[in-house]
Design brief:
The structure holds three protein chains of three kinds. By secondary structure, chain A is an alpha/beta fold. Chain A has helices at 3-7, 18-30, 52-60, 81-99, 116-133, 137-140; strands at residues 12-17, 39-44, 65-70, 106-110. Chain A has one domain (12-149): Rossmann fold (3-Layer(aba) Sandwich). Chain A has a four-stranded parallel β-sheet, with helices on both faces. Chain A is globular and about 45 Å long. The relative contact order of chain A is 0.22. The longest helix of chain B has 16 residues, at 25-40. By secondary structure, chain B is an alpha/beta fold. Chain B is 30% helix and 9% strand. Chain C contains 18 helices and 34 strands. Chain C is elongated. Classes of the chains: A alpha/beta, B alpha/beta, C alpha/beta. Chains in contact: A-B, A-C, B-C. Chains A and C meet through α2, β2, α3 and α4 of A and α4, α5, α17 and α18 of C.
Chain lengths: 150, 319, 675
């Protein structure tokens, strides 16, 4: 590994539902479960609200990996948002893999409001696997004229 | 029997007829039905195909006397359902339409019905029995279909007897020949390659894209008043034709087609830079077939897979 | 131009121990659009909130970001403070730098950098916040209760006692439901009708309850607080205002042999009848299917072939020419309490369910179900309370009770446990033994589910005091053998086959959802599960609400359950309804979706995915009035704000307020600053 790689810390954007995963992440905090600091959360009301364009935009904007997380099937606060998300992201996952995006850069999970520990594990595993994959230079290389800010 | 300007005779009826020759009973029937519909005032315009100097081309027949312009052969690749797009005001203004459709085309009509873009009573559908169409359709006359000249998408056609039609003309046709390499085989070959090679392949393909949006314009199911690609606040899809913006556009197009694409192949045919969109579209069909046991049909009551769900949908990719 | 104020909380030391809060405030000061940034020890305290209010006034702030704990903790607190300072409360958001930052990281530099990122992201979001107003919709303070069983009656009474009018609708001729068919109830062996009929009368006489019996829901329009319900009053052939319940018509009726539904087929009734003597209202219904006069009319006969009930009626209340009529009621809330029906073991079954060929498909006369046993045991039943065999009227000396017939049996299509059968089978064994002291009661069970208060003690009584034999194992075949009913079973505890020559067998059949429940659910826009039971909004925390705002559910129509639970649920719905009615207007957070009618093409994908049925199709008319298209419209009173509609909209023509595309885009942008 080059020096640049050992200094590399992935930037991961997480899209999480308010009722389950966000609250689960809160619980991880209340329980003082320490985890990697590379993940930034964006709160949505429901995974049903999450559009694959969010993920594409996150990659465009420099994310090396993304996490999408919500309520377990049958537990959606809005009954069925996560069922729709499940199909939507199954297709998205498959087509991205077909196009050549490494699926290990995208983590999908069901984390309930009581699963603080699971959230910690999801975060740590995502960070580890994306760190191993390295920065998503390939995506940035698509628009070489752009420069990294900050 | 009609003659083209070059003197070559068109053949009618189902695809696969020899060059020249008489009008088949199917074409006769097609013209008869068209004439009757126009004379009775049941429709104001028949949209079908006519003979052009090179290949067939869409024709709008409003005068019953001109119904003899209508043909059907292996050069009739165009998906005329694109004219049913409610946003095409100039077509809608003509009045009630009688549309000539192949089995693949009519699935798009079912899509429009499902998505409340059309009322069934708004259109008269004249189905033609089809044995496949040419990949290169710019022939002066119809030719016999062979593995080398047939459009790959025709192989394995599952709508040889379209149901969603008011009339069905033509003799039953032989199955389209198997192309040298089927689309499924090309996809499998791509999937055998490692991830990086696939990425290189697709980014190279998408970097050719000039964002002409011809694919969008011709697709019969791309009917939005304001496409998401044209939305600027916020601008999810960059309009610049660099590889990054193009990737975003093509991924979005793919996601919007999942479970809806009927495989008519028009987008690929129209793409001026030759992006192999049929690979993406077919891959989408494979995904919904494998995951949700879904194959698009011409039954408007069929529920599209995206927007539907089962409690036990696959979720192997979710932790 | 945005002028956002950023307030970074120390939270005592909870945040400041790990995050350099002063540095965060400093960094945010330089962020474009931020007009004011500071840090403070306890933002949620009174002085902390005062700080926010002062800063808003002094700096003309257009938005506020509190970088502190989770919004789940204090978003309401700060929104209230912001509102007090005259700034729209929805311009205030929280950046979670405690639960999501200081509490889960150790490295100060990392945590501080992350806190700055988080705060910046929320600042960028707030730049696109809109000054929304709480949504207010008027409420009609009347309730509709569908179903006049114990659950429906309880709900109606609670709401009526609470001072609101209730429309109680029951599809049978009398209220009371299945509970009126029971002889005694567990675990007390209370006489069922004795405890039920006072309630029935109370409901009938209550000034706030409007009772429609022999009626059904025809259609439901509207939304929470504003439903319009069309009710079909089926033709009774009896004028309810004139009838005084004397019963002369029933005595006069020549058709006396119709199997009585109330007696579960074990007794007979006349064509014109009340279901049972204590019926409420005590007004009969003429069964036109079996009535001689109506049969004559259907044959096209010129002269009426009967008319005995009309002749006998001294009040002139019988009218053979009545038809179904319709009435409309305006209500603000609906309670569904339609109860259950028992699984039938016969050959004819709906899709997905199978009958019990092993037990004779219900064709063996002395094999009966639980409700039939209740009628036998009932003092007012067809045998005046004596346990007698339906085939020959003799007293059975050996009765076998079979648990789990249908329930817990995926082979038959019913996977769930029906909850009450262990209890009522024990009760049946006890009742039998109380009446036939020398009788033998054998019960075949899989597990004994007696989990309520006094329930386990009750089951044990059946074994220890009344001598019922409980065999753990299933019954493989039941068939007629001469005069007896042969039962082949298995005792899994001693590993032996058991053969019993029974005189009668009582099957504890599964509880199922009522017929017609799916159609009713569709009218109400509520969903049912695969078995037809109504879906509750959340299995643990919202058991009496459905996903349709304003529609509540009580009793066995939601899942198999016993009487105390049904009553508890009914009272719970009463509380929910009264809470709904407690204000003249309903307040809702404005997290609702709004359709852009200019770009919407009316594909109605949004309507397909909305869990609440909040999306309608709306016609777009040209100036001259002709319809030129249609678009989607989201009812702000019904929309709950999940945003699934927005994600499925291909043209992005619907925006969920408080989570708009612009807001989310700006957050994504802020997090990864790569241009």
């Amino acid at each position: 590994m080059s020096d640049a790689r050992t200094d590399f810390e992935p930037r991961i954007t997480a899209f999480v539902c308010n009722w389950c995963t966000y609250t689960g992440a809160d619980l991880a905090g209340t329980s003082r479960l320490h985890m990697a600091s590379n993940v930034r959360l964006i709160r949505l009301p429901c995974t049903g609200r999450i559009d694959p364009l969010f993920i594409v935009k996150a990659f465009e904007r420099g994310a090396d990996g993304v996490i999408v997380s919500g309520c377990h099937p049958a537990d959606c606060h809005y009954t069925s948002g996560n069922y729709h998300a499940r199909r939507r992201f199954a297709v998205f996952h498959d087509i991205m893999e077909f196009i050549g995006v490494d699926p290990r850069r995208m983590t999908f999970s069901w984390v309930s409001a009581s699963e603080g520990a699971k959230w910690r594990d999801v975060v740590n595993e995502a960070v580890t696997s994306v760190r191993d994959l390295g920065p998503f230079e390939a995506y940035r290389a698509l628009a070489p004229e752009a420069e990294r800010l900050a | 029997m009609s003659e083209t300007a070059t003197g070559a005779k068109t053949s009618g009826g189902g695809g696969g007829g020899g060059g020249g020759g008489e009008i088949t009973p199917g074409v006769k029937e097609l013209r008869e039905i068209a004439r009757e519909l126009l004379e009775a005032g049941d429709v104001r315009v028949i949209i079908g195909w006519e003979d052009a100097r090179r290949g067939a081309r869409p024709v709008f027949v409003t005068d019953p006397a001109e119904a003899d312009k209508l043909i059907f052969d292996a050069r009739c690749v165009h998906n005329l359902v694109t004219y049913l797009n409610p946003r095409r005001d100039h077509v809608a203004e003509l009045g009630k339409i009688g549309l000539v459709v192949k089995g693949c085309d009519v699935k798009a009509v079912a899509g429009l019905l499902r998505e409340a873009q059309l009322g069934r009573e708004d259109v008269v559908l004249i189905g033609v029995r089809c044995g496949g169409v040419l990949e290169e359709n710019e022939m002066p006359a119809a030719v016999t279909l062979t593995p080398d000249n047939v459009a790959p998408r025709c192989y394995g056609c599952d709508n040889r007897e379209p149901a969603l039609v008011d009339h069905l003309v033509g003799e039953p046709q032989p199955e389209p020949p198997r192309p040298a390499q089927t689309i499924d085989e090309r996809i499998a070959a791509l999937e055998d390659k490692p991830l990086e090679e696939r990425w290189a392949f697709w980014t190279e393909q998408f970097s050719k894209c000039v964002r002409c949006y011809a694919c969008r314009q011709v697709c019969p199911l791309c009917v939005c008043e304001r496409c998401v690609a044209d939305k600027t606040r916020p601008q999810w899809i960059e309009s610049s034709p660099h590889a990054r913006g193009n990737l975003s556009w093509n991924i979005t197009r793919a996601l919007h087609l999942a479970g809806r694409c009927v495989g008519c192949g028009e987008c690929e045919r129209f793409c001026p830079v030759g992006i192999p969109l049929s690979l993406v579209n077919r891959k989408l069909q494979q995904i919904v077939a494998e995951r949700y046991d879904y194959t698009v049909s011409d039954d408007p009551e069929q529920v599209a897979p995206i927007g539907d769900y089962r409690l036990d949908d696959e979720q192997e990719f979710i932790k | 131009m945005s002028r956002i104020g950023v307030f970074v909380c120390h939270c005592g030391e909870n945040i400041s121990r790990t995050v350099d809060v002063e540095a965060v405030a400093e960094a945010l000061k330089d962020h474009p659009g931020v007009a004011f940034a500071t840090d403070y020890k306890y933002m949620c305290s009174d002085p902390g909130q005062a700080l926010v209010r002062e800063a808003i006034e002094e700096n003309d702030l257009t938005g506020v970001v509190i970088a502190a704990c989770s919004p789940h903790m204090h978003e309401k607190t700060f929104r209230r403070a912001v509102d007090q300072a005259g700034l729209n409360q929805f311009m205030c958001e929280m950046a979670n730098i405690r639960e999501h930052c200081s509490w889960i990281h150790e490295d100060r530099a990392d945590a501080t950098a992350k806190a700055i990122d988080i705060a910046r992201t929320i600042v960028e979001k707030v730049k696109h916040n809109q000054p929304l107003e709480t949504i207010r919709i008027p409420v009609t303070k009347r309730a509709l209760v569908i179903g006049g069983g114990i659950a429906g009656i309880q709900a109606a009474l609670d709401i009526a006692d609470g001072g609101h009018e209730v429309v109680l609708i029951e599809k049978e001729a009398s209220i009371g439901g299945h509970m009126s068919q029971l002889s005694e109830t567990f675990p007390t062996l209370d006489c069922s009708q004795c405890i039920l009929t006072p309630r029935m009368v109370e409901a009938y006489q209550h000034p706030n309850i409007k009772l429609y019996t022999w009626s059904e829901v025809e259609s439901v329009d509207g939304y929470i607080g504003n439903f319009t319900v069309k009710i079909r009053k089926k033709a009774r052939s009896v004028n309810e205002d004139l009838c005084n319940g004397c019963g002369d018509c029933q005595a006069a009726c020549p058709v006396k042999k119709i199997p009585s539904e109330f007696e579960a087929g074990l007794g007979k009734r006349t064509a014109i009848s009340v279901p049972f003597p204590q019926a409420v209202p005590n007004i009969p219904v003429l069964d036109r299917q079996n009535c001689t006069l109506f049969k004559g009319r259907r044959k096209g006969l010129a002269k009426e072939v009967c008319g005995k009930c009309k002749e006998a009626c001294l009040k002139g209340a019988i009218d053979y020419d009545t038809e179904d009529t319709f009435v409309e009621e305006a209500v603000g809330a609906i309670v569904v309490a339609t109860g259950y029906k028992l699984y039938d073991i016969g050959r004819e079954q709906p899709e997905g369910i199978k009958g019990y060929g092993e037990y004779g498909y219900g064709e063996v006369p002395d094999v009966i179900d639980g409700l039939q046993f209740e009628r036998l045991a009932s003092a007012s039943g067809p045998t005046a309370g004596a346990i007698l065999r339906p085939s020959d009227g003799t007293e059975p000396k050996t009765v076998v009770f079979v648990h789990c017939v249908g329930s817990r049996d995926p082979e038959k299509g019913i996977k769930y446990c029906s909850k009450i059968c262990c209890m009522y089978s024990a009760k049946h064994a006890m009742l039998y033994k109380h009446k036939v002291h020398d009788g033998r009661a054998v019960a075949f069970y899989m597990d004994l589910r007696a989990a309520g208060k006094g329930y386990d003690e009750f089951s044990r009584r059946a074994i220890e005091e009344d001598g019922a034999e409980f065999v753990r194992g299933r019954v493989s075949r039941i068939f007629r053998d001469g005069d007896k009913v042969k039962v082949w079973g298995y005792d899994t505890l001693n590993g032996e086959q058991v053969v019993i020559d029974a005189d009668m067998v009582v099957l504890a059949t599964a509880m199922r959802a009522q017929d017609g429940i799916r159609e009713l659910a569709q009218k109400l826009s509520v969903s049912t599960d695969e078995h037809g039971f109504i879906n509750e909004a959340h299995p643990k925390l919202r058991p009496v609400e459905t996903n349709t705002a304003g529609v509540f559910v009580a009793g066995a129509c939601q899942a198999p359950r016993d009487i105390p639970e049904s009553v508890a649920m009914a009272s719970a719905t009463g509380a929910k309804v009264m809470s709904l009615f407690s204000a003249d207007e309903l307040e809702r957070e404005p997290a609702v979706a709004i359709v852009n009618e200019n770009t919407c093409i009316g594909c109605m994908r949004c309507a397909d995915v909305c869990p609440y049925g909040a999306v309608e199709q709306r016609e777009i008319c040209a100036v001259d009035g002709h319809v030129c298209g249609h678009v989607a419209y989201v009812n702000p009173g019904v929309c709950q704000g999940c945003g699934t509609c927005q994600a499925v909209c291909l043209s992005k023509s619907v925006e969920l307020q408080t989570f708009t595309d612009e807001q989310i885009y700006s957050e994504i942008n802020a997090l990864c600053a790569w241009e």
